[in-house]
Design a protein that fits this description.
Length: 458
């Protein structure tokens, strides 16, 4: 059988859509020690770096066509072993290409490149990797959610073997999946992922799914079991992201199980992140917000505020601003709380954090009985976009309740109005208690509301 070799008039194996003679042949015909892609990246010569990356991809694809494709036909056992290594190689090269395109802001059609690569080698596992990069590019880089969803429309999670694609499938289609389907996908990810710190987020995510259906007891069991398993594998936690996942696990379990010793352990790992020289400014900022929340739980408001203000100093972290507003409410500094929330960009928040923002804003309106701001909060609620149906239902319910409290014709006296305000404050408190905060930050306002209601009855 004749071995494959790329010829001048063939489509180039880099996915450019050009013929080889008009593409990578020039670089590959003059390979020398000076072809240093990383050097060009460091010098911000991104166009040249991309040429080198494409040439590297062409070389790699030629090897796959010449060796792996042949052995898959003649000796499948050896061929499958070679393919496993080639799949890792393909991911590595595509990551570099994607990085260069993003950093250089190059006007290159990455989707067309991936489509062209799909025609070069016919293999399901190979195509899943290309699909993952197509969907992630559309979803994260181009913010084209509809097209990303369209690509996944005919996919069944049961047929997906690539872990990255399965994770992305769950991320994008989460709201249309049933509880049992999400549980199956999470179990599949837990089984497929080898490195324990990476398993951790999906083990905890399963607990959050039980919270979404109101089964807090099962959620508690899952979080406690996950902590026990994490502590048995503690030597595998070595990177900044690992510490963040572990600290978040303790923090969430602390709220769910009312266990302060978990908070103290969370603090230990957040502090590790702050000492990590490899941590990014954004990572430090997020860790400071979570650390501040942990200190607040333990009653150390001074340390908590130090963390929040440091976080804001680093990158104007909106999550830190939410906590500061929460603290102002607790001190009955309502005007300061309004100022913070009104100058916060809610578009930068995650779904869970958006709900924290709205709850705080609604509480402020209710606590101050400020009818002038009711219309503002209703507009913010209606404009607020959340991807989760769970949060969307809560949002819509809150809109109806606020309208009922402030605009209902049945309100005939101040006493009736006050009763309705107290009723809605209690209801909001119930929402917050049910809210999972594995990804979000959570707002602990129980004491603030109970203190307020206690004052009203005196």
């Amino acid at each position: 059988m004749k071995r494959f070799s790329v010829e001048r008039n063939m489509q180039c194996l880099c996915g450019s859509g050009k013929k080889y003679k008009n593409c990578c042949i020039e670089i590959l015909s003059n390979i020398s020690e000076h072809m240093d892609m990383q050097k060009e990246i460091n010098h911000k010569n991104f166009e040249l770096a991309l040429k080198y990356a494409r040439a590297n991809l062409t070389q790699y694809m030629e090897g796959v066509k010449r060796e792996t494709e042949l052995f898959l036909l003649t000796n499948p056992t050896i061929g499958k072993s070679m393919l496993r290594d080639d799949l890792k190689g393909l991911e590595s090269i595509l990551e570099r290409v994607k990085f260069i395109l993003e950093q250089g802001n190059l006007d290159i059609d990455f989707i067309s490149m991936l489509n062209n690569l799909k025609t070069i080698f016919n293999n399901k596992n190979w195509h899943e990797i290309l699909t993952y990069y197509k969907v992630s590019w559309l979803y994260f880089h181009q913010d084209n959610i509809e097209e990303a969803e369209a690509i996944l429309y005919d996919f069944s999670y049961k047929d997906i073997s690539n872990t990255n694609l399965l994770q992305l499938f769950l991320e994008i289609k989460r709201n249309e999946l049933s509880f049992s389907t999400k549980s199956e996908i999470l179990d599949k990810l837990i089984q497929k992922i080898n490195r324990f710190p990476d398993k951790l987020q999906y083990m905890a995510a399963k607990g959050v799914e039980y919270l979404f259906i109101g089964d807090s007891e099962q959620a508690k069991h899952i979080f406690i079991d996950t902590i026990l398993i994490a502590e048995k594998n503690i030597d595998t936690f070595k990177e900044t992201h690992d510490y963040f996942q572990l600290a978040n696990l303790y923090n969430t379990a602390a709220s769910l199980c009312e266990n302060k010793s978990y908070v103290e352990k969370a603090i230990t790992y957040y502090l590790k992140i702050l000492k990590d020289k490899n941590a990014t400014p954004k990572g430090i900022s997020n860790a400071l917000v979570r650390l501040g929340k942990a200190y607040m739980t333990l009653g150390d408001q001074t340390k908590a505020f130090e963390c929040y203000y440091k976080s804001i100093e680093i990158d104007e972290n909106p999550s830190a601003k939410i906590f500061i507003a929460d603290a102002y409410i607790g001190e009955e500094e309502f005007n300061k709380a309004f100022y913070v929330l009104e100058n916060l960009n809610s578009d930068e928040l995650y779904d869970e954090e958006k709900m924290d923002f709205i709850f705080l804003y609604a509480q402020l309106v209710l606590l101050t009985n400020n009818k002038d701001r009711v219309e503002d909060i209703l507009i913010k609620l209606k404009e607020l976009k959340v991807s989760s149906q769970y949060y969307n239902d809560i949002k819509n319910s809150l809109i109806i309740d606020l309208q009922e409290v402030f605009y209902s014709p049945s309100t005939q006296s101040e006493d009736i109005e006050e009763t309705k305000v107290n009723w809605l404050l209690r209801k909001i408190n119930d929402y917050v208690q049910l809210q999972p905060n594995w990804n979000g930050i959570g707002v602990n306002i129980n004491k603030m509301i109970s203190d307020y209601l206690e004052k009203q009855t005196k």
